Amino acid sequence: MPKTPVPPLATPLTELYGVGPERAAQLARLKLFTVGDLLLHRPNRHEDRRHLLTIRQLELGRSGTTRGRIIAQGVKTFAKRTKSVFEFVLEDGTGRLHCRWWNLPYMENYFAVGDEVMVFGKVKSLKPRSIDHPETEVIDGGEELLIHIDRIAPIYPLTEGLPQRFVRGLVWRTLARFEEHVAEPHPSVVLPDLPTRANAIHMLHFPQELSDVDIARRRLALDEFIELQIAIQRRRKNLQTLASGLPCAGDNRFIKPFLRQLGFELTEAQTKVLRELRRDMGGAFPMRRLVQGDVGSGKTVVAACCALMAIESGFSVALMVPTEILAEQHHRNFTRWFEPFGVAVELQTGSRKTRDERPSPPLAPRPAPQASLTIGTHALIESGFTVPNLGLVIIDEQHKFGVAQRETLVRKGRYPHLLVMTATPIPRTLGLTIYGDLDSSIIDQMPTGRGRIRTFVRSAILLPKVHDFIRQKIAEGRQAYIVFPRVDEGDAQAGIKAVTQEFDRLVAIFAPSKVGLLHGRLRPEEKDRVMTAFRANELQVLLATSVIEVGVDVPNATVMLIESADQFGLAQLHQLRGRIGRGAHESYCILVAEAKTDEARKRLEILANTNDGFEIAEADMRLRGPGEFLGQNQSGMPSLRFGDLLNDRALIERARELAARLV
Description:
Blueprint: H1 21-29, H2 35-39, E1 45-48, E2 63-78, E3 83-91, E4 96-102, E5 116-126, E6 129-132, E7 135-139, H3 145-148, E8 152-155, H4 164-178, H5 197-205, H6 211-242, H7 255-262, H8 268-281, E9 288-293, H9 299-312, E10 316-320, H10 324-338, E11 344-348, H11 354-357, E12 372-376, E13 390-396, H12 403-410, E14 417-422, H13 428-433, E15 439-443, E16 453-458, H14 463-475, E17 479-483, H15 499-510, E18 515-518, H16 524-535, E19 541-544, E20 557-563, H17 570-577, E21 587-592, H18 598-609, H19 613-630, H20 649-662
Parallel strand pairs: 4-6, 9-14, 9-15, 10-12, 10-13, 11-12, 13-14, 16-21, 17-19, 17-20, 18-19, 20-21
Antiparallel strand pairs: 1-8, 2-3, 2-5, 3-4, 5-6, 5-7
Helix pairs in contact: 5-6, 6-20, 8-9, 18-19
C-alpha cells in the first residue's frame, strides 16, 4: 500500500539538516517535534543588533548588547573549593569587559580564547567593567552571520546544551523551506488589518521593526482565540442538537407563597435574572447559565426560586457547594423555606447524609419518588450518589470547582438544566473563554436596608486599638470575626499568626465576652456546634480561617478583622469581607498587615478604596494572572502560546464574532 504523504508542517525535525539524535532530544525537551512546533516556538524577546554598543559605551546599571574577542578566561575556586567563579575578558578595541558566572565551572567548556562573542546583560560595576551571568552567543562567522548580527534577532527559550544560534539558524532555514506551506486556517475569514498567518510567523521570528513582533503576536493570538471559540460554540451547538430542554418553567404554585413569606421585596436585578432563568428553563434547549452577583446581592434567593420552578414541574434539584459549613447553612435555610410546601430538602456531605437518617419501615410500600432538593458538597459527584428525575443542577461558588466536576454532576441526569453561581465576579475575558459556553446574567444591585461596609488598612502596632474598637462594638450588641491565614503553628511562616496559636490570648483579651474557634480541621459536628452558637449570639467573637469565606450569613456580625491580610488574594479578601454588612448596621473590615512589597500594598489599597467586586476581580487578575486567579481547581484554562487573557479582550470578542459565522 502506498504511504500517506505527511503534511509539510508535520515533518519531523529529525528530517531537517543538522538535527541528529542529540539535538532532537534537546528540542524534544522544549516540546518541539515537528516543523509546525518549531515555527510556533515563540521567542522570549528580540534584541536589536543593528545598533551594538562598544564596550566603552556600556553604562552602569543598564542593560546593553556588545561584542568582542575573548583575550583571557579561567575558573577560580575559593572557600576550600566549595565555591567558584568562571570569568572571561572580552576586548573590542574600546575597552575590556569581564563576564562572570558564579558556581558554574562547566561554563568554561563553552568558550575559548580567541572566540568572537556577543554579550547581553546589565553592567554591575565599572572598575573593572563587568556583567554577571550575561546571555552570550559565540559568533562563528560564515554565510549565516547575517542571521545573527546587524538585525533584530530573536532570543529563544533554550534547554541545557542547546545554543541560541543553533535554534535561530534552524528556524531561519526551516522558514525558507516551509513558509509557503503555512496555510490560512479559515480561508473565508478576511482580516484586512492583520498579516497572513505565514507572514505573521515570519515576523514573529525575524521582524523588520520591533513593532512587527506585536502585530505578529496579535494575528497568531486571534487564530488561537478563533479555535477556542469554535470549540466552545460547537459544544453549545452539539448540546442543542442532541438534547431537548426539560419543561421546568413551573406554574408559580410554590414561588408566589415563598416570595410572600420572605418578608422583603426582591430587587429589580433579582427579578430580571429570574425572568431570564424562567425563559431558559421553559425553552427548547437545556439551560446553561452563569449568574454573577457580588457578595450579599441575594443569589441564594434566586437559586431557591429557580429550584422551586423545577420542583413545581415535577423534577428534582441538586445544589453543590464547596464547604460543609455552607452546605449545612443552606440545608437549614432551604428546609425552613420549603417545608411549608411539603418539599423534601436532603443533605449529602462527606460526614452527613439525611436520607440515611430516616430509614423506612421494612414492610412499608416504597412511595413514588417525589421532586426534592438535595444540597451537598463534592459528595454529590461520587459514583454511588444518584438523584431520580434530575431536572436542575445548581453550582454555588463555581470558582471552587473544576469544569470536570461540573460535568460529572450534570451527567447524573439526562441533560438537566444548569445554573452556575459565583460571588467572585468573572473578568470579562475569562467570561468569554473559560465560561464561554454559558449564557451570563448579573445581579448588579444590593438589597435595600443593608448597612455600608467601611474598610481600613492598619499595621500590627495598632492592634490594641483595633481590639478596643471590637470590644466597643460587642458592648453595643454586635459580633465580630477575626480571621487568620493559618490553622496552627506548624503551618505558620515566620511572623504569620495561626488561629489555634492566638486563641487563648484573644479569649483573655475579650473576656468576659465568649470567643469561638472555627477551622477546616475540626470535626463537622464541632463546626456545626460553633456556627450555631455564633448565629445565636452565644459567642460574640469567632476566630476562624478562610473556611468562613463563602456563604456564611450572620447579620449581627458587623466587624471583620483579618490578620496577615497580605497573605490572602484580593478576591478572597473581598469574599471574607462579604460576611459582614449583611444586616442594617454599619460594618467595619480592618485589614492588618505589614505589607512589605508594592504588590501587597496595592492589593490592600484597592480593597480599601472600593466595594465593587467586578473592579476587584479585574485588579486581582491583573496582579496574579488568570491561572492564579482561577485557582488550582479550575481545569478549564485554555493553553495559549500567543493569546493573553489579561489584555486581549478586543481580540477575544472579535474571535467570538468570527467563530459564530464559521460555526
